[in-house]
Amino acid sequence: MIHVNKLNKYFYVPHEIHALRDVTTHIHEGEVVVVIGPSGSGKSTFLRCLNRLEYPQSGSIVIDGVDILAKGCNINEVRAEVGMVFQSFNLFPHKNVLDNLTMAQITVRKRSRKQAEEKAMELLGKVGIAEKYNVKPEQLSGGQQQRVAIARSLCMDPKVMLFDEPTSALDPEMVGEVLDVMKALAKSGMTMVVVTHEMGFAREVADRVIFMDQGQILEEGTPEHFFAAPENERTKDFLRQIL
Ligand code: ADP
Ligand code: MG
């Protein structure tokens, strides 16, 4: 589903950083990949390249047969096919929940308002929050806002879902409800790439764990391999710190 080959990303301001170094990985349809690694290791940059929020200097990314770095590639379509959920929920604050879920369906997917609203209500039901369709995001808890953000991405019928520390900004009592939605999504067969510090989620849900450090993939394997017998010294150090 996702082929990433020798991806390199540099930032030049405020000073030169080689944020991704020859990152190569292949992700199957339906696979759930959890990306872990220290702060600044390039995890967010990697995800952001996968839906063209960042544009790498070299390398290739092919998603479901589409070269998303090609000059003629429609960026809005890429972002519809590759949904992304951020740490900060990024809902439109002046729009109610239903409008948040219908706008891109109407403009990008060219659906009628009625179709878009039906889809929105279906997805709001799936994330357990249908009764809140008419409120503004600020009237919701962080966990509810994040579930709305997930539903909004899913309304586009994406082929892939990216999650960048989706529970890091939440109060602890709300982490579970968001992880539960993500687990259900994984079970439904969605292809997912998830940056998270929730090692319980990684153990339980991931098909594969990728460890990044200093812009490189240093180690990857099943959760069993990762948590029982990591090979790289830096992986071991990192796991010692967080477990
Ligand atoms: P992580 O998500 O693993 O914490 P990031 O991908 O955010 O790491 O960052 C990787 C490196 O790239 C860091 O050194 C960070 O400071 C740098 N970086 C990320 N985004 C930018 C940007 N927009 N401009 C300059 N440097 C950036
Ligand atoms: Mg990050």
UniProtKB/TrEMBL annotation:
Domain ABC transporter: from-to ranges: 2-239
GO molecular function, a single term: ATP hydrolysis activity
Record keywords: ATP-binding, Nucleotide-binding, Transport
Positions in coiled-coil regions: none
InterPro entries: AAA+_ATPase (IPR003593), ABC_ATPase_HisP-typ (IPR030679), ABC_transporter-like_ATP-bd (IPR003439), ABC_transporter-like_CS (IPR017871), MetN_ABC_transporter-like (IPR050086), P-loop_NTPase (IPR027417)
PROSITE patterns attached to this UniProt entry: ABC_TRANSPORTER_1, ABC_TRANSPORTER_2
Pfam families documented for this protein: ABC_tran
Family matches, as PANTHER family: AMINO ACID IMPORT ATP-BINDING PROTEIN (PTHR43166), PHOSPHONATES IMPORT ATP-BINDING PROTEIN PHNC (PTHR43166:SF4)
Family statement drawn from the similarity comment of this UniProt entry: Belongs to the ABC transporter superfamily.
Record protein name field: Amino acid ABC transporter ATPase
Species the sequence originates in: Desulfoplanes formicivorans
Organism classification: Bacteria, Pseudomonadati, Thermodesulfobacteriota, Desulfovibrionia, Desulfovibrionales
